[in-house]
Design a protein that fits this description.
Number of helices: 29
Distance between the termini: 119 Å
Shape: rod-shaped
Structural class: mainly alpha
Order of helices and strands: HHHHHHHHHHHHHHHHHHHHHHHHHHHHH
Radius of gyration: 54 Å
Oligomer: single chain
Number of strands: 0
C-alpha cells in the first residue's frame, strides 16, 4: 500500500514511538547523508518494502507530518512499533535482511491463539502492517492478504491495549477513542483500495462485514452511500439507453440486473430490507428492469419476433429486487398480464392462419348487430359466412374449439334474428286479426301520410305474409342445421327448429284450409258463414275459420246439424243484407259469437 511504502515514519527511518529528540537527530543525520550523496543502511526504512527515494524536500515533508498528534496517529496506524522488545527486535532485523519467512514465523506464533494481550499486541499491529504493505503479494491472493492484514489490525484496535499504542505515538493531550481509530484506519484502507484496485469495492465490503469491531455499523452505513450513488448512475444510464433503443431494451435490462445485483446484495446485508435507503434504491432498479421488459414487449408484440419469454425473464428479475408494496404490485400485475398473453399464443397463431376469413366474419357480425331483424338479413349472414367457415374448418379442423366458437357465433346470431323476426310477424298477425282480418297494406295507397306512418308502425301482417316469413325462416334454419356448433347451442338450436317447424305446419294447414274453403264457397255459393263474416268483417278471420271448422267437422256429421246448416244458409243472406250497416247489432252479434266460440273450443 502507498500509505505504508511512503509512510512519513519510513521516510525518516524511525519506528512509531520515537521521541522528538530522536526524530530531530535522525532528520539531521539523513540530510547529511543526502548532501554526501549516500544512503544510510542502519535505520528502520526497511528497503525490502520497496524502493524509497529520499530527497531533502521529502525529508522535510515527512518530518512536518510527524509534528501534529493527529498526523502522527494517522501515520502510526500503518507503521511498525516496538511493543515487545524480546520478539519485535528479532522480527525487525529479519525484515531488514528480507527474511520474510522468519518475520512471519515470529509474529504468527504470537497471534495464533486469537487473543490480544500485553505481550502480543504489537505483533498483531506489526504483522497486520506487513500484510498490508504488499510485500507478501504472490504468496496468496490479494483478497486473502488484504483480509488478513485488516483482520489483524482491527483486532488490535478493538483491544484495550490500543491505549498503550496511542500513548506511544502521541502525547497526553491527544484524545481519541477505539471507534475513531478504527474509522480512521478503515477510511484510509478504503481510499487505498479504490485507488490501487487491489480488490473490488464489493470484495472489500465482504471483508469488512466478516469482522467484529466497535465501529462496524457506523463505518458500513457511511460506506453504502457510494454504492448507492453508483447504482443510481447505472439506472439513469439504462433509462437513457432504453428510451433511445427499445428494440434492445431486453439486453439493457439484463445488463442493469447484472451490474447492480452484487451491490444490492451487499447493501441488503448491511442495511436490511426494512431500511429506507435500501428499499428505495432496490425498487428503482426493479422498476427500470421491469420497464425495459415492458418497452421490449410493446416494441415487438405485433411483429414476427415473439417477446414473451425475454420480457418475462426481465419481469421475474425485477420481482426479485422489488421491496416496496407498490413495486411488488406493479411487477405482479405485469407478470400476470404477460402470462395471459403468452397463454393466448395458440389462439393468436390460429388467428394469423385464418386472418382474412376471421376478419370478414368479425366485420360481418359487427355490422349484423345494427341491422333490422329480418329473415333476409339472417339469411345473408349465413350464406356469406358459410364459405369462410369452410376455409377456417379446413385450416383448424372440425373439432377445434376456436372454429366451433366462430361457427356457433354465426348460428347464434342468425337464429336470434330469425326468432325475433318470426315473433314480430306473429304479433303483426294478431294486430291483423284485431283489425277484423283486413289487410290494410292494400289500402295504404289511398291513405294520407300520417295514417300510412301509423299503419307502418303497427306492423300488420296477414296470414299469407306470416306464412311466407315463417317458411323462409324455416328454410334458413334448415340450411344452418349442417353447420358445426358447440353442444349447448346445438341443443337449443334443435328446440327452436322444432318449434319453428310446428308453427310452420299450423300456419300452412290454416292457409290450405282457407284456400280450399274459399274455392268451395265460390263454386257452390252456399258454404260461406254469412253472419259471422258480416260480424267480423272478413271471410278469412280466424274466428270465422273456427266457425266454419265447427260447421264442417261437427254440424255436418248429424241430421240435425245438416238441417241447421240448410236453414242457416237459407235465411242468413237476407238477414245480413238487412243488418250489414247496423254497427251496434254487429258488435252484439260478434260478442255472442265470441262466447259461442269459447264454448265449442
Amino acid at each position: 500500500m502507498h500509505i505504508i511504502q511512503n509512510n512519513p515514519y519510513r521516510t525518516v527511518g524511525l519506528l512509531v514511538g520515537a521521541t522528538a529528540r530522536e526524530q530531530e537527530r535522525q532528520v539531521k543525520r539523513l540530510k547529511q547523508f543526502i548532501e554526501a550523496e549516500q544512503d544510510p543502511q542502519d535505520d528502520f526504512s526497511f528497503p525490502t518494502l520497496g524502493n524509497l527515494h529520499r530527497t531533502l524536500d521529502k525529508i522535510n515533508e515527512a518530518a512536518s507530518k510527524l509534528n501534529l498528534d493527529s498526523d502522527k496517529m494517522s501515520s502510526a496506524l500503518f507503521w511498525f512499533y516496538k511493543g515487545n522488545p524480546i520478539t519485535d527486535e528479532p522480527a525487525f532485523d529479519a525484515i531488514k535482511e528480507a527474511d520474510l519467512d522468519q518475520v512471519i514465523n515470529i509474529w504468527t506464533k504470537l497471534t495464533s491463539n486469537g487473543e490480544v494481550s500485553q505481550r502480543n499486541a504489537s505483533a498483531y499491529s506489526n504483522l497486520g502492517t506487513l500484510y498490508l504493505s504488499g510485500i507478501l503479494e504472490g504468496t496468496n491472493t490479494n483478497e486473502a492478504i488484504l483480509e488478513k492484514g485488516i483482520s489483524l489490525k482491527l483486532k488490535f484496535l478493538e483491544s484495550d491495549f490500543v491505549k498503550d499504542f496511542k500513548a506511544l505515538a502521541t502525547d497526553e493531550t491527544f484524545k481519541t477513542t477505539k471507534k475513531e481509530l478504527q474509522l480512521l484506519f478503515l477510511n484510509q484502507v478504503q481510499s487505498e483500495v479504490e485507488k490501487s484496485g487491489i480488490v473490488t469495492s464489493n470484495k472489500f465490503l465482504d471483508i469488512i462485514t466478516k469482522q467484529e469491531f466497535s465501529a462496524k455499523e457506523e463505518f458500513l452505513k457511511g460506506f453504502v452511500q457510494k454504492p448507492i450513488e453508483q447504482i443510481e448512475k447505472k439506472v439513469e444510464e439504462a433509462k437513457t439507453k432504453r428510451k433511445a433503443n427499445k428494440a434492445n431494451a431486453v439486453n439493457i435490462g439484463k445488463a442493469l440486473f447484472e451490474q447492480t445485483s452484487e451491490n444490492l446484495k451487499q447493501l441488503k446485508s448491511i442495511l436490511g430490507t426494512s431500511n429506507l435507503k435500501f428499499s428505495s434504491i432496490s425498487d428503482k432498479v426493479s422498476d427500470e428492469i421491469l420497464q425495459c421488459g415492458i418497452d421490449y414487449f410493446s416494441h415487438y408484440k405485433d411483429s414476427g419476433t415473439d417477446p414473451g419469454s425475454a420480457s418475462m425473464d426481465l419481469f421475474r428479475k425485477a420481482k426479485t429486487l422489488a421491496v416496496g408494496n407498490i413495486a411488488k404490485q406493479r411487477c405482479q400485475e405485469n407478470t400476470e398480464n404477460l402470462q395471459e398473453w403468452i397463454d393466448d399464443k395458440p389462439e393468436r397463431d390460429k388467428q394469423k392462419l385464418i386472418g382474412d376469413d376471421l376478419q370478414f366474419i368479425t366485420s360481418k357480425l359487427e355490422r349484423f348487430q345494427s341491422l333490422s331483424d329480418t329473415v333476409a338479413n339472417a339469411k345473408d349472414l349465413v350464406d356469406s359466412c358459410k364459405p369462410r367457415l369452410v376455409n377456417i374448418k379446413n385450416a383448424l379442423g372440425q373439432f377445434d374449439d376456436f372454429y366451433l366458437k366462430i361457427s356457433s357465433a354465426i348460428v347464434s346470431n342468425a337464429q336470434g334474428m330469425l326468432v325475433t323476426a318470426v315473433n314480430e310477424a306473429q304479433e303483426g298477425f294478431k294486430k291483423y286479426q284485431e283489425f277484423g282480418g283486413v289487410d290494410l297494406s292494400m289500402l295504404r295507397h289511398s291513405l294520407d301520410d300520417s295514417t300510412k306512418r301509423l299503419l307502418g308502425n303497427l306492423n300488420i301482417v296477414s296470414l299469407d305474409e306470416l306464412s311466407r316469413i315463417v317458411n323462409s325462416a324455416y328454410d334458413v334454419t334448415t340450411s344452418m342445421q349442417s353447420m358445426d356448433m358447440v353442444s349447448n347451442l346445438k341443443q337449443s338450436f334443435q328446440k327452436n327448429r322444432e318449434a319453428l317447424g310446428s308453427i310452420r305446419s299450423q300456419i300452412n294447414t290454416a292457409t290450405s284450409r282457407t284456400t280450399s274453403r274459399s274455392t268451395s264457397s265460390s263454386s257452390s255459393g252456399s258454404s260461406g258463414c254469412y253472419i259471422a263474416t258480416m260480424a267480423y268483417g272478413d271471410y278469412d278471420h280466424p274466428q270465422v275459420m273456427i266457425l266454419r271448422q265447427f260447421r264442417d267437422e261437427v254440424l255436418d256429421k248429424s241430421a240435425l246439424g245438416k238441417w241447421f246448416i240448410k236453414t242457416y244458409y237459407h235465411y242468413s243472406p237476407k238477414l245480413v243484407e238487412r243488418l250489414k250497416n247496423q254497427k251496434t247489432v254487429n258488435i252484439i252479434i260478434r260478442k255472442a259469437l265470441n262466447q259461442f266460440i269459447k264454448l265449442i273450443k
